[in-house]
Amino acid sequence: MGSRFVKAMVAAASLSLASFGAQAQESSENQVAAMTAWSVFEEKQGDEKECWAVSTASESVNTRNGQVVAVKRSDILLMVAYVPQKSVSGQVAFTGGYPFASGSNVGVEIDGNSFVLITDGEWGWPASPGDDAAIVAAMKRGKTAVLTAQSSRGTKTKDTFSLLGFTAAVEEAGKRCQ
Q1: Is residue 60 part of a domain?
Q2: Are 47 and 72 in contact (CB under 8 A)?
Q3: Under 8 Å between Cβ of 152 and 100
Q4: CB 3.0 to 4.6 Å from 33: which of 40, 136, 149, 173, for a disulfide?
Q5: What is the tens place of the pLDDT at every residue in 122-133?
Q6: How far apart are the first and last CA of the chain?
Q7: 163 contacts 37 by C-beta, under 8 angstroms
Q8: Per residue, what are the HEC states of 5-65?
Q9: CATH code of the domain containing 170
Q10: Residue 116 belongs to what domain range?
């Protein structure tokens, strides 16, 4: 299920986020807008154009056997992508910064609304475009998104994302890639 364009987007966004967290989004050459906790990026390769809204987790808690533990994770990103040449509009993607446990899902809680992302390696996606649309709609109305998952090493993670600025960011990304 791993979408090549989403992985390429994360590679570009991760380069800017790796050392400096969310503040680095402001200095990326690919960033075209910033809305509170969310940033908008745009990539062009030939005739293909990709746009996405992305945010880093505002809080992360890692537990093993019920105890909080310190673990090393790569970038933790929640994003919504648009790739008009591939008929992709509003695809939700999450990377937890580690390989997910085989056969596991990511739980998504947005102000009382629950969703599931299926996993593949370090990525999680909704099962269908209809699920993408439902999650994006909930994110537009919500204040926070909490994603829970389990790593291939058994660590349970809980990542919280602020949704302040999400609506403006996702609309800007969609407008740029119509």
Answers
A1: yes
A2: no
A3: yes
A4: 40
A5: 999 999 999 999
A6: 24
A7: yes
A8: HHHHHHHHHHHHHCCCHHHHHHHCCCEEEEECCEEEEEEEECCEEEEEEEEECCEEEEEEC
A9: 2.60.40.1880
A10: 33-176
